[in-house]
Amino acid sequence: MDLLIAIFLGLIQGITEWIPVSSTGHLVFAQQIFQLKSEEMVLFDLVLHAATLASVTFFLRKELKRIIPSMFRDRAKLDEDGIRARRLGWFAVIATIPIAIAGIIESRFLNEIFSSALPTAVALLFTGLMLWVAETPSLRKERSEMGLRSALTIGLFQAVAVLPGISRSGSTISAGCYLGFRRDVLAIFSFLLSIPAILLALAYGFAFLGEHQTDWTGTIAAAVVAAVTGVLALKWLFKVIQKHRLRWFALYCWAAGLVAIALILMH
């Protein structure tokens, strides 16, 4: 893979992994445009996901310092904030179960999923619809306490995002809006929920990687770009979520999906 193409893909991954427009969907389109083989994208894609994991871990470093230790301490020894952090951490783990199951099912059809851009383009239209509805004024409530049922509901929305074109962050953020959570709460939980999901994807991917090869110069350069842009994207998205401007991304998803469908049908 050409170095400039690799860096460009790293930039796309770093931005779209967090901005609710589907990183996998954009990588599918890029694969079609640059005529990249599915086999050479497998290891490359795993390394980029490791880079975005690093970016969200850095972004949530203060929250993780509270959440992770509290998850393994005696509940009776925790104060109110510690108990809240403990619940949030375990809810994120439990809410990852749906996407773990969906990911195993998806892995059986991985080559087929990445071989066609049309279903991805249609899925982008659906992502746009989710984001548009999420900003309905009647959904703006002020819930701040996450419960198990709400966490699982958000986890089920995340599971749908194994399909290219369905944004993981868009699905979880939209679900939080539908449930009426405060924007800062749902943003943190959405970002937190990505960590076990990415860890599982990396563990599964490397365990069954096989003999896939990659150009390590381009892959490492792309990973660095993805990590840095990922942090910047997270900071920007956090502000956008709080300002109730998700419909920006809905319009982008619709435009990108329609343009992609038109180009595919004209080809």
Average per-residue pLDDT, rounded, comes to: 87
Outline type? globular
Residue ranges: pLDDT <50 for 5 or more in a row? none
Q: Given the helix and strand composition, which structural class is it?
A: mainly alpha
Distance between the termini: 24 Å
- Extended strand count: 0
Largest sheet: none
Q: Roughly how many Å is the radius of gyration?
A: 18 Å
Beta-strand share of residues: under 5%
Order of helices and strands: HHHHHHHHHHHHH
Percent in helix? over 70%
Tally of helical segments: 13
Tell me the number of structural domains.
Answer: 1
Please summarize what this structure is.
With 267 residues, the chain is mainly alpha-helical. Helices cover 76% and strands 0% of the residues.
